[in-house]
């Protein structure tokens, strides 16, 4: 009979009871997620970046990208020898379609401001950068397996104000975290784990005598010079940092 199904129940002694006609809804037995059952499907509230298609954007819009370390890594990457490795990977990642302009290495994530030729250029560039960093850090930490979380997070910066705020957020991210924790912060301190030592648009010139900063400035910057208007001149409408 259409729309119906049948089920034969058994007694405790193994004798068959009479057949009972059931509807399809009655025949379904909830037994977890997935398939054609009540409660099936992904639970609400994703905790990872959605695997949908990346939004398209014009080349003139810089991107604020965040790479998060996989929880299985279990140790901070904000250490001198690891930051040196990350700087080398960033330097080797620059292509005609992808450039890292600013960055900051935190304990369990990396912030970057990048230029890319659209969504395709960003995807190719980030794939190459992820592989470079992951392989080198895995080797340094003597581990194997996934290093970064499923997907990086990215946000297009469309206005001079957005770009200025993003540059401030990336270069001073460590100070921002300290301030949120209630620690007194020197906002003119140069973070050696970021691209701040090579940043040339501070409102107050920095003449740090920190040996780490002096050593870094003795070498060429690992980042690429900006080329889009929002990063070269546009953001400075709001004043230097």
Report what the structure shows.
By secondary structure, the chain is α+β, with helices and mostly antiparallel strands. The protein has one domain: Transposase IS200-like (Alpha-Beta Plaits, 2-Layer Sandwich), CATH 3.30.70. Helices cover 30% and strands 14% of the residues. The protein is built from seven helices and six strands. The protein has helices at residues 24-27, 80-93, 118-141, 160-171, 173-180, 211-217, 229-232; strands spanning 4-7, 20-23, 63-68, 98-105, 109-116, 153-156. It has a four-stranded antiparallel beta sheet with strand order 4-5-3-6. A two-stranded antiparallel ribbon has the order 1-2. A hairpin with a 3-residue loop joins strand 4 and strand 5. Helix 2 (80-93) runs antiparallel to helix 3 (118-141). The radius of gyration is 26 Å and the shape is globular. The N and C termini lie far apart (76 Å).
Write the layout of secondary structure elements.
Blueprint: E1 4-7, E2 20-23, H1 24-27, E3 63-68, H2 80-93, E4 98-105, E5 109-116, H3 118-141, E6 153-156, H4 160-171, H5 173-180, H6 211-217, H7 229-232
Antiparallel strand pairs: 1-2, 3-5, 3-6, 4-5
Helix pairs in contact: 2-3
List keywords for this structure.
241 residues, alpha+beta, Alpha-Beta Plaits, 4-stranded antiparallel sheet, two-stranded antiparallel ribbon, globular
* CATH class label: Alpha Beta
Count of the separate structural domains: 1
Largest sheet at a glance? 4 strands, antiparallel
Record the strand order, biggest sheet. 4-5-3-6
Helical stretch tally: 7
Question: Do you know the CATH topology?
Answer: Alpha-Beta Plaits
Topology order in helix (H) and strand (E) letters: EEHEHEEHEHHHH
Number of strands: 6
Radius of gyration: 26 Å
CATH architecture: 2-Layer Sandwich
Oligomer: single chain
Helix content: 25-40%
Mean pLDDT: 85
Structural category is: alpha+beta
- Which term fits the overall shape? globular
Uncertain runs are none
Instruction: Kindly report how far apart the N and C termini lie.
Output: 76 Å
Annotated CATH homologous superfamily: Transposase IS200-like
Which band does the percent of strand residues land in?
A: 5-15%
């Amino acid at each position: 009979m259409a729309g119906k199904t049948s089920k034969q129940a058994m007694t405790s002694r193994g004798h068959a009871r009479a057949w009972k006609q059931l509807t399809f809804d009655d025949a379904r037995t909830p037994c977890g997620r997935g398939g054609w059952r009540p409660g099936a499907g992904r639970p609400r509230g994703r905790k990872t970046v959605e695997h949908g298609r990346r939004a398209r954007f014009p080349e003139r819009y810089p991107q604020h990208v965040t790479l998060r370390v996989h929880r299985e890594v279990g140790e901070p990457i904000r250490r001198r020898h690891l930051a040196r490795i990350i700087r080398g990977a960033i330097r080797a990642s620059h292509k005609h379609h992808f450039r890292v302009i600013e960055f900051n290495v935190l304990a369990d994530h990396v912030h970057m401001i990048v230029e890319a030729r659209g969504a395709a250029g960003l995807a190719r560039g980030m794939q190459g950068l992820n592989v470079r960093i992951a392989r080198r850090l895995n080797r340094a930490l003597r581990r194997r397996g996934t290093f970064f979380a499923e997907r990086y997070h990215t946000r297009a910066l469309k206005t001079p104000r957005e770009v200025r705020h993003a540059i401030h957020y990336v270069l001073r991210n460590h100070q921002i975290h300290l301030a949120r924790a209630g620690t007194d912060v020197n906002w003119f301190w140069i973070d050696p784990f970021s691209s701040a030592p090579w940043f040339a648009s501070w409102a107050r010139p920095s003449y740090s005598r920190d040996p780490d900063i002096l050593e870094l400035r003795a070498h060429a910057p690992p980042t690429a010079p900006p080329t889009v208007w929002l990063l070269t001149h546009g953001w400075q409408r709001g004043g230097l940092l």
